[in-house]
């Protein structure tokens, strides 16, 4: 593969630099960590970045701390059969090619869903909520049709999915669902197909999955709340889900909040620590999920079901649920302040482009 030279890093480079290199060389899907003699020391993939974030590593973290220092490699002498076997065994689509001294001389890849630009996997867009926290704006229009700048929130999501090669969409509807159907129709104007899941009564963020016709769905499917703005690559999300195994993947965003007081720790009636206005970090639910068919089939639709309850049930049953941390832009348009911020963010991007 050509262009691999642009996807190289050194041990002293940071995770932030790795993110930039991976984004600029998205087709390659891998960054190669080398020394001054071009000897391969390790590799960094999008999955390595996500796992580092889960460990609360910051963007200033040296790549040496997050890279795979024992990556699978091949030599120029290796045949297609061996290369194919290594790729299948390791579930990877890119392999560094090294000489006998371990010096990188190339990168070999195979066509995959990640780079082909088209995915069969189905998407479920949750667009049935009442949007009460956005009153009075949502008294006469469903929240997904509220415009951010000149485009409805849900249309921005559909545009992004179509551009990334996802063409099979489901939309769950309830509150003023007819307006959404009238706006999107069959989806052909966005080069997608849309099948509507119409809830007679609110079924919750997971309950609507009971309306998915599995004969028309391709799994694993991605579920997205219809009031989000984000720049994540959904193909990479799918790849991560398949690499990690498990029955579900939950996208999370690191959230910081500062306690506006001095926190006092007390042990046995005595002060043991005083921490002035500490900042706490945690991961919050980002409203994007990947679900295997086995999970979707457990949703019967007999009662409202929240996605968090569905996933909590899986965890309690010792099923593997992965966390996919988002470092890209992400905003949940839950209330008026977030709606104003979203509008401002879009206007700023337009001004800078």
From TrEMBL:
SUPFAM superfamilies listed in its UniProt record: CBS-domain pair, Nucleotide-diphospho-sugar transferases
Q: Name one Pfam family in it.
A: NTP_transferase
Where is each CBS domain found? 1-63
Please name the InterPro entries in this protein's record: CBS_dom (IPR000644), CBS_dom_sf (IPR046342), Mannose-1P_guanyltransferase (IPR050486), NTP_transferase_dom (IPR005835), Nucleotide-diphossugar_trans (IPR029044)
CDD domains documented for this protein: NTP_transferase_like_2 (cd06426)
Q: Which PANTHER family match?
A: SUGAR-1-PHOSPHATE GUANYL TRANSFERASE (PTHR22572)
Name of the protein in question: CBS domain-containing protein
Q: Which organism is it from?
A: marine metagenome
